[in-house]
Design brief:
By secondary structure, the chain is α+β, with helices and mostly antiparallel strands. It has helices at residues 9-43, 89-92, 98-101, 161-172, and strands spanning 46-47, 54-55, 62-63, 69-72, 77-85, 107-115, 121-131, 134-144, 148-157. The strands form two sheets. It has a seven-stranded antiparallel beta sheet. Strands 1-2 form a two-stranded antiparallel ribbon. Mean pLDDT is 83; it is low at 2-6 and 22-40.
């Protein structure tokens, strides 16, 4: 049987010091990994040709030759960027209502007000629709300043939702202009 009362207090202090050192090492390792992940993400920032928008697309997405944005052919997913000079984004976000969308065969799944990673306010609207028998979801990301609006549509098949939805949202939050 171990007698804890006879334990040398200096041993106890050494153990506490070792635990503090270990905690500090673990904290620094986690901090370093997190910092490297952020740095790696920012180094992947791509300017969308023909626009003022830059963003970090999800892994595997490439610039499209057909439209302003990115495409991932294997998943039938795309991110399309449109600019609207002279338009305040605050006016547009109210246009996405069930009454407006339903007659077009589009279902409003949700809306939220967010901020980009740079702190710029944005609206994130999620809709669903069907094209040629295939179900899709689309994030409609609306941001800008008082004089310029940027709408970024991120489309993906519903069957890939579990794999791609969060990555699309993370990518949209990296938008800068």
């Amino acid at each position: 049987m171990i007698n804890l009362q006879s334990e040398n207090p200096s041993n106890h202090n050494r153990i506490q010091d070792k635990m503090r050192q270990l905690s500090l090492i673990v904290f620094l390792a986690i901090y370093t990994c997190f910092s490297l992940q952020l740095f790696a993400q920012e180094s992947d920032r791509i300017s969308v040709p023909g626009s003022k928008v830059s963003m970090v697309p999800p892994e595997g997405f490439e610039l499209s030759n057909e439209f302003q944005g990115f495409i991932h052919l294997a998943s039938s997913s795309a991110i399309q960027v449109t600019e609207h000079p002279g338009v305040n984004p605050a006016a547009m976000k109210f246009s996405f209502t069930e009454e407006v969308l339903e007659p077009q065969g589009i279902t409003l799944e949700g809306k939220e007000e967010v901020k980009t990673n740079a702190g710029v306010p944005a609206s994130l609207i999620l809709v669903s629709f069907t094209v040629e028998g295939m179900d899709f979801e689309r994030y409609i990301f609306i941001t800008g300043d008082h004089n310029n609006m940027y709408i970024i549509n991120a489309n993906y098949p519903v069957m890939t939702k579990e794999l791609i939805q969060d990555k699309m949202k993370e990518s949209l939050l990296t938008v800068e202009f």
